[in-house]
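Figure 6 in text form: structure in, sequence out.
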């Protein structure tokens, strides 16, 4: 994890620094297990059940009168009164990590002194921290309370994030007396930080507006800031009191000091502070929804020790500031939502049930809602976009990003290429820099606004390409050098999405959802009507199959029996009329059969499988072959036809109808032929070629003005008995089968030269020539 967090830029900086400084050591350092405490106080870790000392700092002799080795294994009451030990146990029983502070007198009988005792629990131990207090240095609660109350009141009167931070740094500096206090806001969870507010002593260099590299605060430090909200370093030159033993016997690991106020400091961080001329510091965490939003950072030019009550007040102040910042952001979001409602409603009022078409028709207004360069809608697998071009590849990538949006919320970023790269996704060259995504429904559909790159100028307190420099104290992380300010351009990012942008998107989503749901209700009603219509069709089919065909057979049989029994006694006119009656009854029976077959094509389900066109063509030729041979039509086919995905029986029916047609409408020429192949062809009203199955003959052809008529039901361009007769249903059935597959059917024909029927099998189908590379026989719609 730490290796991934360390950027390539930071890695290259290690090499450029020379002399072997390894920045990754800073990232991997276990700063909560450094095995020491700041030496102005001391620490004991106690087994709460037995009261025996498990771990002790090696300065206990100087502060408490007993050496660490003597204290380990002894009861804590050797240096702490029974009543104070019991009070510490009871006060810390409800929480493992939150420290409580008690005023005590501690030490051996001949080494008693006043201390502030901080107690918290960690890993099954009671951790006690002793900080000396002078007997006459009593805590003046009333005066200090007034200062804290004044500071909190200043926050309440601030209406913006920056204004709140400005008030905060001034009040913290007044409470603590540090020389510089800054409010530092992170750019994302793991990003660099910007100084957004500052209160600094005259003569100190101002930092307001400067950025600091993300490597200044590595991940493990950020996690500790989220757990332990205040961090005080009294003196960067403190010698550190080491813990005894270095590793606990029970765990084999150093004592976890995550919750300890006296926890010693990483050598890297101490060197960092020395190089910027800081002798003491304090950091107060600012949290947003449990994550680190920023810091109040305090710096002093000399050593400074803060009493526990001052630290507690600053921690309380940091908590209040975090809450105030969250309240301001929520209020801004609410104001943005209220202000965007009317604008969004005006745009939504222009949308119709055809969401895609109406969105694209009014795309400029939709983009202006959030100041976007482009807009795209993915619905039911179809991508529609306008403005900044967005490829289908980007559309699929954004579909995965849409899953990050919380339920009923949006997901946005102003650095999409960075996000995709961190997820291991290969970033397309046409990737937009920013995206605001709004899921629509629960099937992966979404509406998205995109922004192109906007280079951002930024001033750094350190060269972000070289976080490691040789400073006054040696080769360490050095944020400043000779007062230099490094200017750079941030690339690959868009303008950030504001609360107002996100509020507009949410309101748009609400109105779109209402529209989609209303449309779904209408579809449900139409489906109910369609089901009733299908029931009526089934009833009609039953009547046609039984009630109509039965009397029709009776008429045909009566005419036949009359001709057989009384034919010799009838005159010629009566015989011709009876034969006509029998012929018309047979034709009516054929028409009913064709009608029933066509109706079933619309209701029967498809059984899609991977099938070889060669096999289906062989089966169709077994039936149509004799008719083709009778008409002298030669069959031409490639050596290997590809595989497709579709319903085998229905594809057989397509090929059979088209082959029989080639026999019926063969031309008056000696070289009659029909070819079955697969080739790329451009469908009507399309701008690109798609793979299609082609059945091409050199027959009589079809006049241009009648080419669409051939697909109509019961429509023949010739008389009932011409060209082999028929009911005019075959090509209508072919068209219906192709459309059921989600494909397209069209023809290209010239009278006297022949006809080529092209058809595809829809996006689900795949063709694999010779079992090799796959390609889709897809609809262009």
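Output sequence:
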């Amino acid at each position: 994890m730490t290796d991934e967090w360390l950027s390539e830029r930071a890695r290259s900086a290690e090499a450029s620094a020379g002399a072997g400084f390894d920045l990754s050591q800073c990232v991997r350092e276990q700063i909560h297990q450094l095995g020491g405490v700041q030496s102005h106080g001391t620490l004991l870790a106690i087994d709460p059940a037995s009261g025996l000392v498990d771990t002790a700092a090696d300065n206990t002799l100087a502060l408490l009168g007993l050496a660490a080795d003597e204290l380990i294994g002894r009861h804590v009451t050797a240096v702490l009164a029974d009543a104070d030990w019991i009070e510490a146990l009871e006060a810390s029983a409800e929480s493992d990590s939150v420290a409580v502070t008690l005023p005590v007198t501690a030490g051996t009988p001949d080494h008693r002194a006043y201390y502030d005792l901080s107690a918290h629990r960690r890993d099954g131990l009671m951790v006690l921290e002793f900080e000396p207090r002078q007997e006459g240095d009593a805590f003046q609660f009333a005066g200090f309370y007034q200062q804290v109350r004044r500071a909190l009141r200043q926050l309440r009167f601030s209406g913006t994030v920056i204004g709140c931070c400005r008030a905060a740094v001034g009040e913290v500096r007044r409470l603590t007396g540090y020389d510089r206090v800054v409010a530092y806001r992170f750019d994302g969870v793991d990003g660099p930080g910007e100084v957004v507010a500052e209160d600094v002593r005259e003569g100190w260099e101002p930092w307001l507006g400067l950025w600091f590299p993300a490597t200044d605060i590595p991940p493990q430090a950020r996690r500790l800031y989220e757990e332990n909200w205040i961090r005080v370093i009294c003196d960067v030159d403190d010698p550190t009191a080491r813990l005894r033993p270095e590793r606990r016997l029970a765990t084999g690991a150093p004592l976890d000091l995550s919750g300890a106020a006296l926890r010693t400091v990483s050598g890297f961080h101490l060197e960092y502070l020395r190089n910027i001329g800081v002798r003491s510091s304090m950091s107060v965490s600012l949290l947003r929804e449990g994550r680190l939003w920023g810091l109040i950072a305090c710096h002093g030019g000399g050593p400074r020790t803060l009493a526990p009550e001052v630290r507690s007040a600053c921690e309380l102040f940091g908590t209040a500031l975090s809450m105030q910042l969250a309240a301001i952001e929520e209020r801004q979001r609410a104001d943005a939502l209220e202000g965007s409602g009317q604008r969004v409603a005006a745009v939504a009022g222009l949308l119709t049930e055809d969401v895609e078409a109406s969105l694209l028709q009014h795309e400029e207004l939709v983009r202006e809602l959030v100041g976007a360069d482009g807009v795209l809608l993915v619905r039911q697998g179809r991508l529609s976009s306008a403005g900044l071009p967005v490829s289908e590849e980007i559309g699929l990538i954004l579909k995965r990003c849409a899953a990050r949006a919380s339920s009923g919320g949006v997901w946005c970023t102003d650095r999409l290429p960075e996000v995709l790269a961190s997820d291991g996704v290969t970033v397309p060259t046409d990737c937009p820099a920013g995206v605001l995504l709004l899921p629509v429904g629960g099937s992966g559909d979404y509406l998205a606004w995109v922004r192109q790159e906007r280079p951002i100028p930024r001033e750094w307190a350190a060269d972000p390409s070289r976080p490691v420099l040789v400073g006054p104290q040696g080769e360490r992380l050095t944020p400043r050098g000779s007062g230099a300010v490094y200017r750079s351009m941030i690339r690959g990012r868009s303008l950030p999405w504001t609360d107002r942008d996100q509020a507009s998107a949410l309101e748009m989503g609400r109105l779109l959802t209402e529209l989609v749901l209303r449309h779904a209700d209408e579809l449900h009603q139409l489906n109910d009507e369609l089901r009733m219509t299908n029931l009526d069709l089934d009833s009609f089919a039953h009547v046609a199959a039984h009630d109509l065909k039965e009397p029709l057979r009776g008429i045909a049989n009566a005419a036949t029996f009359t001709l057989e029994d009384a034919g010799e006694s009838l005159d010629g006119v009566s015989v011709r009329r009876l034969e006509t009656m029998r012929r018309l009854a047979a034709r009516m029976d054929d028409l009913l059969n064709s009608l029933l077959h066509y109706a079933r094509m619309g209701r029967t389900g498809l059984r899609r499988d991977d099938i070889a066109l060669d096999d289906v063509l062989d089966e169709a030729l077994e039936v149509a072959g004799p008719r083709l041979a009778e008409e002298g039509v030669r069959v031409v086919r490639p050596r290997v036809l590809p595989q497709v995905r579709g319903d085998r029986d229905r594809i057989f029916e397509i090929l059979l109808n088209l082959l029989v047609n080639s026999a019926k409408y063969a031309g008056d020429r000696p070289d009659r032929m029909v070819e079955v192949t697969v080739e790329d062809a451009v469908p009507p009203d399309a701008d690109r070629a798609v793979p299609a199955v082609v059945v091409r003959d050199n027959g009589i052809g079809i006049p241009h003005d009648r080419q669409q008529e051939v697909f109509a039901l019961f429509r023949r361009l010739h008389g009932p008995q011409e060209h082999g007769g028929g009911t005019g249903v075959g090509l209508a059935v072919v068209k219906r089968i192709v459309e059921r597959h989600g494909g397209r059917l069209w023809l290209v024909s010239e009278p006297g030269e022949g006809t080529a029927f092209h058809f595809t099998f829809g996006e689900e189908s795949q063709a694999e020539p010779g079992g090799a590379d796959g390609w889709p026989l897809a609809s262009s719609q």
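Caption detail: Residues 2-33+140-331 form a domain with the Beta-Lactamase fold (CATH 3.30.450.40).
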